[in-house]
Amino acid sequence: MGKLALAVHGGAWHIPEDAAEACRRGCARALERGWAVLERGGSALEACEAAILELEDEPVFDAGTGSHLNRDGRVQCDAILMDGATLKAGAIAGVERLRNPVKVARLVLERSEHMMLVGPGAEQFAVEMGVPLCNPSELVIAREVELWYKNKHETDVSRGHFTGDAQLGTVGAVALDARGSLAAGTSTGGTACKYPGRVGDSSLIGCGCYADNRSGAVSATGYGEAIMKVVMAKAASDFLAAGLAPQAAAEKAVALLAQRTDGKGGLILLDPAGGVGAAFSTPHMAYAFRTSDSAPTIRL
Asked: Which one is catalytic: 65, 86, 170, 297?
């Protein structure tokens, strides 16, 4: 069996003290769930999906249940999975009735000729694939209703995004399986009070996610409009391909974001040998990782 590696994140943001333990536990559970897949011989793609499913179901993170509400008080989610062996990706965006968007992203990857589906079309595809739709209200939690009300009445919503404690965590995972294949995935509810229909970096290949067996696997998090400008996940992958060590590649990609934009963010990555890198320019980033020769590590 080849080397195994898995890293997960719960977003780069300012984590309030009262949310820190929930973030740690959520990342730990996601790591354990994804690692179990790899240990039994599952694919990197399957491990990423399993880890992200756990993170989508943890309300402390901005993905699936507990996602931010848009300007109109609705949850709209985006997600992607990418296979490093084939460079095929499956992405969905602007969905309101899917409890676990990453599950449908994988179905787009494996069972559709397309690479991205959005809005009602993505939900229609989910139904055709046998995935039940949920009531949009099932994704809404009290914390986000309170945040939405505060932002609507105390912040200039025309700016389209908010900073500080308002920004919770996009989630993601990167994995290396026993066959030497890499995969990456990212899932988000987007920014608080975003314009309806806004799609950020998370579901876009090369921006919030990238995987290539020849270079590495990357999942990014942060302010999407800035991450898109520098195509941050692909930039990090290119740094790996140029020979940088994983941690150096992660740090250089985040430095690029700071140099060329006014946005902040972070990322996790793996190289083809299972080396791990993580960097962020926000106050915190909840993440965890494990490899065949290193114990589970959880950090904020």
From this structure: 170
